[in-house]
Write a sequence for this structure.
């Protein structure tokens, strides 16, 4: 009976502990998966339950013994029973103490679980509230898409052809892809809102830096305002009205570290004829965080490889109408299909993982979709995240290599 109680305690301990330590990441991924399964009328894959083998003991036939031996055995049995009871009495106090500690521990974990469930409900309610705000502002977000400023030295022609050439090899390797891969700590960084300015690249680049810092155990809120300034070298000494930028210039420069948000606060409204909003405060130039390593990516194989190494990847896309009002996924079929948004010129987002798709969907969309974080608040997708199918990415990939951030240096 005691062994059974202990086993139940261990099982409950594992379940309660797992639920208590569920992360924001698990909620976001779960909400995206549920949305996909619901849209395509799929049932969730049954959970695999691992059961231990049942042990059986063979019964021994009682051996015939003499009457004298029987009396001796009876005496020995009584003595063993007395010794057993004495040992049980000695252990009873210790067991009762242990049982009390176990009960207290389980009550504590149940309380933690309840707190987490309440936090989950509050989070989903917050997403729903912000979604109402987002839906009303979609026309404003459409205006922020611009032609990205890609420097000639990193520009590669026919990037889309390079990607397509690698699709077949990725399809062969799909059996080795985990069901879900999320870059470490990528969903534990706060989703931000770029507002009415064309600063998507800066938000994606800053988020990548904040993720790498969090992987190093450093909490940071960096300045998109200063990142945008660094990514537009032609607009640093004199005012300009050319909108948009790309992350390469800010990652590549070694003169200034990215400052914190408190040192150089982001301004949500544009200044006519002054995209970088110069002159900036002196404190904007007192940052200490530098991109210390990044790679350019021109294939799906390279993209997957960088994500597997926990490197966030900045990607640029032209958009479909389905990209705006999505339910946590953007596919070429359902919810708008591949229809182009005639207003969309370019938009940067951060790729933070991938998810293997069920066979029914993969036949249409490719074997997996890419998990991304946007900069339009938590009302977009699921908490500011969504999953872009391989087919959608192939169609809307911008004509420039993606960039993965591999390392951060703090000065």
């Amino acid at each position: 009976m005691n062994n059974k109680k202990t086993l139940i305690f261990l099982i409950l301990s594992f379940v309660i502990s797992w639920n208590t330590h569920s992360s924001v990441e698990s909620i976001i991924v779960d909400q995206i998966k549920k949305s996909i399964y619901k849209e395509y009328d799929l049932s969730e894959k049954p959970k695999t339950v691992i059961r231990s083998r049942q042990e059986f003991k063979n019964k021994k036939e009682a051996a015939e013994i003499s009457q004298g031996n029987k009396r001796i055995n009876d005496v020995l049995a009584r003595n063993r029973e007395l010794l057993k009871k004495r040992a049980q009495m000695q252990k009873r106090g210790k067991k009762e103490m242990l049982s009390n500690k176990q009960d207290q521990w389980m009550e504590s974990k149940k309380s933690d679980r309840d707190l987490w469930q309440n936090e989950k409900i509050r989070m989903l309610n917050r997403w729903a509230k912000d979604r109402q705000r987002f839906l009303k502002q979609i026309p404003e977000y459409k205006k922020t898409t611009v032609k990205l400023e890609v420097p000639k030295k990193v520009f590669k022609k026919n990037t889309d052809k390079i990607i397509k050439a690698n699709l077949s090899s990725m399809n062969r390797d799909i059996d080795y892809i985990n069901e879900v891969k999320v870059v470490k700590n990528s969903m534990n960084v706060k989703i931000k809102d770029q507002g009415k300015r064309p600063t998507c690249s800066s938000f994606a680049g800053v988020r990548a830096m904040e993720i790498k810092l969090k992987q190093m155990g450093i909490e940071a809120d960096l300045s998109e305002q200063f990142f945008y300034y660094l990514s537009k070298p032609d607009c640093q000494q004199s005012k300009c009205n050319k909108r948009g930028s790309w992350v390469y210039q800010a990652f590549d420069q070694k003169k200034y570290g990215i400052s914190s948000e408190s040192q150089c606060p982001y301004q949500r409204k544009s200044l006519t004829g002054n995209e970088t909003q110069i002159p900036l405060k002196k404190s904007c130039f007192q940052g200490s965080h530098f991109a210390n390593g990044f790679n350019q990516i021109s294939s799906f194989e390279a993209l997957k490889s960088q994500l597997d190494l926990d490197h966030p990847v900045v990607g640029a896309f032209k958009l479909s109408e389905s990209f705006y009002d999505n339910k946590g996924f953007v596919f070429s079929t359902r919810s708008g299909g591949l229809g182009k948004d005639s207003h969309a010129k370019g938009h940067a987002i951060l790729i933070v993982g991938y998810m293997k798709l069920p066979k029914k969907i993969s036949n249409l969309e490719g074997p997996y979709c890419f998990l991304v974080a946007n900069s339009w608040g938590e009302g977009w997708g699921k908490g500011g995240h969504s999953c872009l199918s391989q087919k959608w990415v192939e169609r809307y990939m911008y004509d420039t290599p993606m960039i993965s951030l591999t390392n951060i240096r703090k000065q």
The chain has a mean pLDDT of 81. DSSP finds eleven helices and eight strands in the chain. Residues 288 and 398 are 31 Å apart (CA to CA). The two ends are 61 Å apart (CA to CA).
